[in-house]
Structures are given as C-alpha cells and as structure tokens.
Specification:
single chain, five-stranded mixed beta sheet, globular
C-alpha cells in the first residue's frame, strides 16, 4: 500500500510540475504579446514625452551611461564625444521613435523610451528615461543597433 501512495504522490508532484511549466510558458507568451501591444505610444504621447524630456535636459542636463560596455564600444567606434552624443539626443524627434514607454522595473528613473538615429552612417539604438524629479534625465543606452529597428511614425521610404 505504501508503494501505491508513494507513486500517487510522485505522479501528483510530476503532474503539478508540468502544469506549472505550461503556466509559465503561457504567462511568458501573454507578457510578450501584451508588451508588443502596450509599447507603441501615440504620436501625441511621443510628442508630450519628447517635449518634457527636452525641457528637462535644458534645465538639468542628461547623464549618458557610457560606462556600460556596449555604450563605450559604440562611443569609440563612432569616434563620438559625450557632447556630440548629447546633441544627437537633443535632436530626437517623433520620427525617430521606435518603442515605449517600457515599464522600468529595475529602478525609479521612469518609463524607458527607445529611439533610433543615424550617427556617422550607423543606426544607433537610444534608450532614454525622464529620470527622477529635479535630477538629470538619463540615457541608458546609446549603442549600435543590434537588430533592425522599426519606426512607426517615420514617413514611408525606408528605415533610418
């Protein structure tokens, strides 16, 4: 009798493990598809974000995280100074928008917004955040695009 109970307990445990695996996959798929739906802002939302962001940069400046390896490599590869990086960021427009807002779960810098820009004939992936109140805006990523970027509000005629 003890063998049968042990087998039933094992079956029950294995069954739940499989159910949990399926549920994790299902939740991951839900998050993936929900992410695609939620991450495209309207033109007005992008305009509002950029307006506030540019105003903040004028008052508090921007911190570019060039200590991140990808960012540092891109800075060297493009032979671009931090001042030139700031100028590129200050020139961001709605047409450069790629995705966001993305909920920032790692810190309190606010939602992340992704833009792309041609710099020295290279497509650069730029991820920015408004930052904390009364503090610098933040550029988390300024590196060569690792995959083709989409620009939902760029005029027809190609990608950046």
């Amino acid at each position: 009798m003890a063998d049968t109970e042990a087998k039933n307990a094992l079956f029950s445990t294995e069954k739940w493990k499989n159910i949990c695996k399926c549920e994790n996959i299902f939740v991951s798929l839900q998050k993936f598809f929900k992410r695609d739906i939620e991450m495209i802002a309207t033109i007005q939302e992008v305009e509002r974000f950029l307006s506030r962001f540019h105003e903040k940069v004028e008052v508090f400046d921007i911190i570019i995280l060039n200590d991140r390896e990808k960012n540092a490599k891109t800075q060297a590869a493009l032979d671009i100074s931090p001042i030139a990086q700031r100028d590129v960021i200050k020139e961001l427009r709605v047409e450069d928008y790629s995705e966001g807002p993305i909920k920032n779960i790692l810190n309190t810098l606010g939602d992340l917004w992704v833009f792309g820009k041609d710099v020295n004939e290279q497509e650069v992936y730029i991820k920015i955040a408004y930052g904390a109140p009364n503090r610098n805006a933040i550029c988390v990523s300024f590196h060569l695009a690792e995959y083709p970027m989409n620009y939902p509000y760029k005029k027809k005629g190609g990608k950046k």
